[in-house]
Amino acid sequence: MNSILSIHSIRFIVLILLQVLILNHINFLGYINPYIYIIFIALFPVRNKRVLFIILSFLIGLIIDLFLDTGGIHAGASVCIAYVRPVVLKSSFGTIYDHQTVRFNSVDFGAKLTYFTLLTVLHHIILFSFEIFSISKIILILQKTLFSSIFTILLSITLTIIFSRKTK
Amino acid sequence: MLFLVLFGLSLLFTIQSHTYHKSKFINSANFLTGGVYNSLNNISGYFNLKSQNDLLAEENKQLRELLHNTVTNIDSVYVDSVTFGTSYKFYNCNIIKNSYALTDNFLTINKGSKDSIGQDFGVISSKGIIGIIDKTSKNYATVLSILNTTSRISAQLKKTNHFGTLKWNGKSPEYVQLTDIPKIAALHKGDTIVTSGRSSIFPKGIHIGIIKDYKLDVAENYYEINVQLFNDMTNIEYVHIIKNVNREEINNLIKNN
User: Count of A–B CB contacts within 8 Å?
Assistant: First the structure.
């Protein structure tokens, strides 16, 4: 239990620093950035307390907001995906989730990809709607969501593959 | 229930951040984020020393030309620089966090209220305007960039005195939009746009950019102008802060009317 706790606190801090110090300066083609910190939310243990999980998601989003001067857009998007995560888990993993035994190192790749894609796209749509905050610019919102999602999904899948090999 | 509370809270912060001067807690001018950005900037500052040196050398050249050619060059710029000394104070500082990819961009600088920096001071670089100071902490301050959809700056044509409002449509960091220039103004591509000095933030005549293209707005009474910035907003490091010494007096006068 203690080691799980320390792994997640280290992951919390490392992901924030990685996001703020490196990934926000990529600006590929002018505006495309990956938002990799959401793998903290995606990989949080399934069976842990729901309340703690939602509060932690809010905190990680809020700290990112603090660094980027963006009000509450990351906090809002993170809380939202943390809230709907059980539904997403169920739809992408099916029966394994019903037995509460999802372990992210051992599930097959297709299900994992679906899971990450659903979470990322949902997160990014909320994020960019909040950022732009205007229905008349819906095209811009969708465009940003699409490109940044591709980038985020690629990077998060790569990261999880790299780090799960190590723990085997 | 908890979800609704936290989601509502973040929505509140978001709405505040879309209103000028309202974001109260969530800004990067605090001890933690300012400190992290400052130590990062101490390292990454070395990587673009060369290009920044070129910029500074270019500015030195311009200032030297101005200094030695004053007899032949007495124009409006020179007259303005005389009044600078009495009513405007300059501070120089470093950008420790730059941002240009969002629709509402804020920069962070490494001077704050300790160095007598306050809200609504102007920020310029050697080439043109950058933005306006928004929030200050003891050692750091955030700057509302001109690349922010809530930013409004009074600007005019350099040749004539037609003035309008400078905004940003959130698309390209190279171009900003000048609106409310009346239809009778004579415009040409390549004309210079400068600050108008009407706002008590920036002095008159600070360079902004040149006209890229222009068209009439929907009501066909005013021009909408695309302005290409002199500044490369993606590569800024050393900037100057302008304090208008007479600002309070001017604002009091306006308020009392």
Answer: 105
